[in-house]
Amino acid sequence: MSASPAPFPGAASTDAQRPAADPATRSVAEKAAEKAAAKAWTVDLRELGRRAGSMREWEKTLPARPGWGVEMIGVPEGAPVHLHLRLESVMEGVLVSGTVDVPVTGQCARCLDPVEDTLELDVQELYAYEGSTTEATSGEDEVRRIEGDTLDLAPLVRDTVVLTLPLSPTCTPDCAGLCVDCGERLDDLPSDHSHEVIDPRFAGLAARFADLNDSTANDADGAQPGSGSTDTEEN
Ligand SMILES: [Zn+2]
Ligand SMILES: [Zn+2]
């Protein structure tokens, strides 16, 4: 009677797609994994120190946090996000700059085929010290803040990713989308792909001519190939 195994920490799973379970029913292990995943994105500033000019490279690959996406494309939770950052102590706080590589997956807005890509994003952001002039003169949402001795990089990366993601991603820049009649991808079909559409008002007539052609073909005397059909189409 053992409980089902907990998902691998940070790994994308179908469970992660569902709304968060009731906190009371989540296991201790799940909560610990969640906390560790969040903490991985936190930088301890004690090594950097407060002396302006001191610098530190921060190169890591971290699992993406949940909810980094827009409707048709996003970063799968747990996907490896590569950070190549420089943390620089400045008068007012810590300047974070560098590049972030994030894998994104989604669906083509035109043909619904899967879309996969890696975004290379440039980031540059000042995290203000508590009590600094920058903090005092900026609104709550205008500047990121350093809390105690740490700063959290996840919100910066999330915001940068979400602002970069296209609302209508496409598999190729000129994806032609789907055929409105058969639903197949137009790019997979020959260029002359079309459907012969018979006007419903003439459908009965077309069927009668088909019958007529059958019977005349069987009757050797009265065979008049092609008769009739051209006349009616001119109406
Ligand atoms: Zn497409
Ligand atoms: Zn078609």
Descriptors for this entry?
235 residues, alpha+beta, 2 domains, two-stranded antiparallel sheet, 6 helices, elongated, disordered C terminus
Ligands present: zinc ion
Strand-residue proportion: 25-35%
Distance between the termini: 78 Å
Please give the share of residues in helix: 10-25%
Shape: elongated
| Helix/strand class | alpha+beta
Low-confidence stretches: 1-17, 226-235
Number of strands: 8
Tally of helical segments: 6
Taking all Cα atoms into account, the compactness measure Rg is 31 Å
Biased composition (Low complexity): 1-13
Protein name: DUF177 domain-containing protein
Pfam family, one: YceD
InterPro entries: YceD
Provide structural commentary.
With 235 residues, this protein is of the alpha+beta class. The protein folds into 2 domains: 40-177, no CATH class; 200-228, no CATH class. It is 24% helix and 26% strand. It has 6 helices and 8 strands. The strands form 2 sheets. Strands 2, 3, 4, 5, 6 and 7 form a 6-stranded mixed sheet that branches. Strands 1-8 form a two-stranded antiparallel sheet. Helix 3 links the parallel strand 6 and strand 7. It is elongated and about 100 Å long. One zinc ion is lined by residues 179, 181-182, 184, 193, 195. One zinc ion (ZN) binds next to loops.
